[in-house]
Automatic annotation (TrEMBL):
The active site is at residues 213, 401. SUPFAM superfamilies: Activating enzymes of the ubiquitin-like proteins (SSF69572). Its EC number is 2.7.7.-, 2.8.1.-. Its main location: cytoplasm. GO terms for biological process: Mo-molybdopterin cofactor biosynthetic process; protein urmylation; tRNA wobble position uridine thiolation. It comes from the Eukaryota. Plays a central role in 2-thiolation of mcm(5)S(2)U at tRNA wobble positions of cytosolic tRNA(Lys), tRNA(Glu) and tRNA(Gln). Acts by mediating the C-terminal thiocarboxylation of the sulfur carrier URM1. Its N-terminus first activates URM1 as acyl-adenylate (-COAMP), then the persulfide sulfur on the catalytic cysteine is transferred to URM1 to form thiocarboxylation (-COSH) of its C-terminus. The reaction probably involves hydrogen sulfide that is generated from the persulfide intermediate and that acts as nucleophile towards URM1. Subsequently, a transient disulfide bond is formed. GO terms for cellular component: cytosol. This is Adenylyltransferase and sulfurtransferase MOCS3 homolog. Zn(2+) binds at residues 196, 199, 271, 274. Keywords: ATP-binding, Cytoplasm, Metal-binding, Molybdenum cofactor biosynthesis, Multifunctional enzyme, Nucleotide-binding, Transferase, tRNA processing, Zinc.
Length: 444
């Protein structure tokens, strides 16, 4: 049964203001729909009219991950007429602790299709549109214009700006959610005269200050809660009931289970995209604008000065052999202390190499990245002290981290203190070690 043959209303936005113009009488609910949605039909705030609005509404979820999964399942359950799910990525095992619509059997399957499959199993009477592609400036407007409400369930800054600008240009409300570690946020942009994302954040943050779930971690239930809130906001907008988070920001803290709502500043007349004289009338290059990729994947960055790149380690040829021999060197792991409990490279006792100094936090010889950044001179002094004890100067210093990005930053910091220091990093970090040297080494 096709739900979208008749659309009873049309949303139009002028200067951030929304209105609905009824074009024809809504289609009557079938006996099947009355039985299925009976528990929400008897809510006076929703009723038959609200359900008719839901069944004729088209919602697009951009991102089929920790936020998109719970949002999708509750929108499908509520009877949203058309549900689009856009995501370029495939299901991975590390997704499953928070992306609850995917399964072990679907690892390797396109996320958009996985979510659509789960929602179709729940409610086969709605229209589901999986879109396996990355949202870009070239396709954003053509995709978004087909929907009434857009949900931002992504995890990177470039896509947030792209979605915001596209929604303003297309006149669509944007329900934006985010979750990291134990905290979540939610608001509604470009709705009923409220601000857009650029009104609050005219300029993107420096790329090095932005952390996503892949780097910072997240407790799975947190994006689940925020995703449910996103579904709730979309349902209220579609059914024209209640009060939305327009010009308000919901802050959720899972550790003390607290929720706060703060008032946001209004739409800015000087805003570059929704202001009175907007300078942005077409979608731009958002990766260039933000200085970051429009993806939550973490690439190997290139931060080591070109003059030192020849010193970087090739795992199999150099460090693995060094580990097996008796060449004195210092291995510095710059990961967070909690990560050491997950996995570490082999201890000297396991390699018959007592000359290698393994770095431990309780001996103040393990150096997490934040401490190294605060006191690189102290780290260099420790290295030189140890080199004097071994009577081996200059001493080789090898830096390791999770993916090989922080280790490069550490190399630069140490070389700024002492340009003659013999310091190198393990290219690709522990991920590369697991891929190229030890296939049994854990990957997280």
């Amino acid at each position: 049964m096709e739900k979208n043959a008749e659309v009873p209303f049309q949303q139009s936005f002028e200067n951030g203001r929304s209105s609905r113009e009824v074009r024809k009488e809504p289609r009557k609910l079938s006996n099947f729909e009355i039985a299925r949605y009976s528990r929400q039909l008897i809510l006076p705030e929703l009723g038959v009219k609200g359900q008719q609005l839901l069944s004729s509404c088209k919602v697009l979820i951009v991102g089929a991950g920790g936020l998109g999964c719970p949002a999708a399942v509750y929108l499908a359950a509520a009877g949203i007429g058309t549900l689009g799910v856009l995501d370029y990525d495939d299901v991975e095992m590390s997704n499953l602790h928070r992306q609850i619509l995917h399964t072990e059997q679907r690892v390797g399957m396109a996320k958009a299709h996985s979510v659509a499959t789960s929602c179709r199993n729940l409610n086969s009477s709605i229209r589901l549109i999986p879109i396996r592609e990355q949202l870009k400036s070239e396709n954003a407007l053509s995709v978004i214009k087909e929907y009434d409400i857009i949900l931002d369930a992504t995890d990177n800054v470039a896509t947030r700006y792209l979605l915001n600008d596209a929604c303003v240009l297309a006149g669509k409300p944007l329900v934006s959610g985010s979750a990291l570690r134990f905290e979540g946020q939610l608001t509604v942009y470009n709705y009923r005269g409220g601000p857009c994302y650029r009104c609050l954040y005219p300029k993107p943050p420096p790329p090095e200050t932005v952390t996503n779930c892949s780097d910072g971690g997240v407790l799975g239930v947190v994006p689940g809660i925020i995703g449910c809130y996103q579904a709730l906001e979309a349902i209220k907008i579609a059914a024209d009931m209640g009060t939305t988070l327009n010009q308000r920001l919901l802050l959720f803290d899972a550790l003390d289970c607290s929720t706060r709502i703060i008032k946001l500043r209004p739409r800015q007349a000087s805003c570059a995209v929704c202001g009175d004289a907007p300078s942005i009338r077409h979608l731009i290059d958002y990766e260039q604008f933000c200085g970051a990729r429009a993806t939550d994947k973490v690439p190997r960055t290139k931060t080591v000065n070109v003059i030192y790149t020849v010193c970087l380690f090739f795992l199999k040829q150099e460090y693995h052999e060094l580990l097996m021999n008796t060449v004195p060197h210092v291995l510095i792991d710059v990961r967070m202390p909690v990560e050491l409990n997950i996995c570490c490279l082999p201890h000297p006792a396991q390699t018959d190499n007592p000359s290698m100094l393994w770095i431990f936090l309780d001996q103040m010889q393990y150096v997490p990245m934040d401490l190294l950044q605060k006191d690189p001179k102290g780290t260099v002094q420790q290295i030189k002290c140890y080199a004097g004890e071994l009577k081996h100067d200059p001493l080789s210093v090898i830096i390791v981290c999770r993916r090989g990005n922080d280790s490069q930053l550490a190399v630069n910091l140490l070389l700024e203190v002492d340009p003659d220091l013999n310091v190198k990093d393990i290219r690709g970090g522990l991920h590369a070690w697991a891929r190229d040297v030890d296939l049994d080494f854990p990957v997280y």
